[in-house]
C-alpha cells in the first residue's frame, strides 16, 4: 500500500438520514485523526455539514448531487425499496439539500 493510502483514514459521520437512523462521531475523534497527519473524510448530510461549519475544523467540502431530480426519482423507484411515502420524503429532502449545496457550498 502506498504511503498516501496508508495515511488516509476514512471516518464516516452522519447526523441523520431520511429514515431517522442516528450515527455520530465526536469532534475530538476528527481532531485525533487529523493530529496523526491523516486525512479525515466525513460522509455527511446537510445537517451534519451545518454542525461541522459551527466548529473550528475548517474542512473542504465536496457536494455530490444527482444529474437531475427526475433521474434521482427514477433511480429510487428502480430500486424498488421505497414506499410512496418514503420516496416522497427522500425527494423532498434531496430538493432541500440540493438548494443548500448550490447556495452554501
Structure write-up:
The chain is mainly alpha-helical and 105 residues long. It has two domains: 1-56, no CATH class; 63-105, no CATH class. It is 50% helix and 6% strand. A two-stranded parallel sheet has the order 1-2. β1 (8-10), α2 and β2 (39-41) form a beta-alpha-beta unit. α4 packs antiparallel against α5. The relative contact order is 0.14. Mean pLDDT is 78; it is low at 1-22.
Q: Can you tell me the overall shape?
A: elongated
Class by SSE composition: mainly alpha
Cross-sheet strand order for the largest sheet: 1-2
Instruction: Please tell me how large the radius of gyration is.
Output: 16 Å
**How large is the count of helical segments?**
5
What is the mean predicted local confidence, pLDDT? 78
Roughly what fraction of the amino acids lie in strands?
5-15%
Question: N-to-C SSE series?
Answer: HEHEHHH
Helix content: 40-55%
Number of strands: 2
* Integer count of domains: 2
Distance between the termini: 33 Å
**Low-pLDDT residue intervals, each spanning 5 or more residues:** 1-22
Q: Biggest β-sheet: count, sense, barrel?
A: 2 strands, parallel
What oligomeric state do these chains adopt?
A: single chain
Amino acid at each position: 500500500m502506498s504511503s498516501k493510502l496508508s495515511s488516509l483514514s476514512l471516518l464516516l459521520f452522519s447526523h441523520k438520514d431520511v429514515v431517522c437512523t442516528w450515527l455520530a462521531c465526536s469532534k475530538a475523534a476528527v481532531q485525533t485523526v487529523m493530529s496523526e497527519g491523516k486525512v479525515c473524510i466525513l460522509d455527511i448530510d446537510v445537517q451534519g455539514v451545518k454542525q461541522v461549519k459551527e466548529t473550528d475544523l475548517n474542512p473542504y467540502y465536496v457536494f455530490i448531487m444527482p444529474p437531475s431530480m427526475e433521474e434521482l426519482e427514477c433511480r429510487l423507484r428502480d430500486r424498488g425499496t421505497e414506499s410512496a411515502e418514503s420516496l416522497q420524503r427522500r425527494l423532498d429532502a434531496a430538493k432541500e439539500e440540493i438548494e443548500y449545496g448550490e447556495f452554501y457550498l
